[in-house]
Amino acid sequence: MMDLRYRDEGTAAKIIKKLGTMDLDLRFMHVCGTHQDTLVKFGLEKMLKDVGITIGQGPGCPVCVTTTKEVVEAITLARSGVSITVFGDMMAVPTPIGSLAEVKAEGADVRVVYSIEDAVRMSRDVDKMVFMAIGFETTCPSTAYSLLHSPPDNFSVLSCHRLLPPALRALFSMGEVRIDGLIQPGHVAAIIGMGPFQPFAGPNGVPQVVTGFEPLDLLMAVYMLAKQVKEGRCEVENEYPRVVPPEGNPKALELMSRAFKEVDKAWRGFPVLPMSALEVSDALSEHNARLVYEDALNDAPVVKEDMGGCRCGEVLRGIITSPECPAFGHGCSPKRPMGPCMVSREGSCNISYRYRQD
């Protein structure tokens, strides 16, 4: 049951009623943990299923798509005496050699921060500081800004930033799941604009709608997608013009182009995706943790990506839902996670577990 403000309930009911008259059997996908949280928290998922629409989550959780290898890099640096700063969700991500939280308990200097600015400030009190930078285009500009504005000599970045469009290309090329339409994330679009989504539209593409994160935003996006399908259109529409300009944020894109270079990189659940990640640019190599601490990272162990019965990779590709993983709720929970999809607040497994009805 939706828990919306009373003035929104009538609008939501009208949208659902309209969808119910359209005789739908559609599968949409979104690529944002916040969209998933809204869908489940407000009961939209069930309501939409009742009118013939299923919505799956793709690779939209930055903690989840970060590979075990990258977490092991941070653990290796922490154990070598480097101070590590990370966002809180990264702390409990399990690897075959432990987690950052466990390394901290062993005595390593691992600190939770809320922004890269916190990490830069803390670096003035230690010998060696590394910020583990994660996230899509939404968080890249803040990392870029700090790198470009004279960070301390002892400060470097372990870049785990990802770019969304290459992951979408991979989803389509793999063809593992049926996708009748894409709900595109408004915060990413606020940076990159509408243009990068155009290659997934047209005669060989699917309908797309860029939207925000309130329940009505999502319901309107679903209605706009369904309308495109019924009318035989495959366009990129903007439900979120109050935040997303067509051109995105040119200043943010300029900062990113100066601070980073695009590189090939594997994602959890995916093979190496061409030009899908951002590495610190050559001009800022003195702040690239992979170069600054190359000798220490050469000793990092080679590990498997998924542990035990965790099927996080398949969840991220939309092949299975979180409850369909055999480990879900049976050995895998937020308190004892077997994979990052259960760790992160944006992870599908964590969201499904929090809002499950026993």
What does this protein look like?
By secondary structure, this protein is α/β, with parallel strands linked by helices. The chain is built from 17 helices and 11 strands. The chain has helices spanning 6-20, 33-41, 44-49, 62-65, 68-79, 100-105, 116-122, 140-148, 164-174, 186-192, 215-231, 250-259, 289-292, 294-297, 312-316, 340-343, 348-354, and strands spanning 26-30, 53-57, 83-86, 110-112, 129-135, 155-161, 181-185, 208-211, 236-238, 260-266, 272-280. It has a 5-stranded parallel beta sheet with strand order 2-1-7-8-9. Strands 4-3-5-6 form a 4-stranded parallel beta sheet, with helices on both faces. A two-stranded antiparallel ribbon has the order 10-11. The protein is globular and about 65 Å long. The two termini are 16 Å apart.
**Helix coverage percent of residues?**
25-40%
Strand content: 15-25%
Oligomer: single chain
Q: Characterize the biggest β-sheet.
A: 5 strands, parallel
Secondary-structure element order, as H and E? Answer: HEHHEHHEHEHEHEHEHEHEHEEHHHHH
Low-confidence stretches: none
Radius of gyration over all CA atoms, rounded: 21 Å
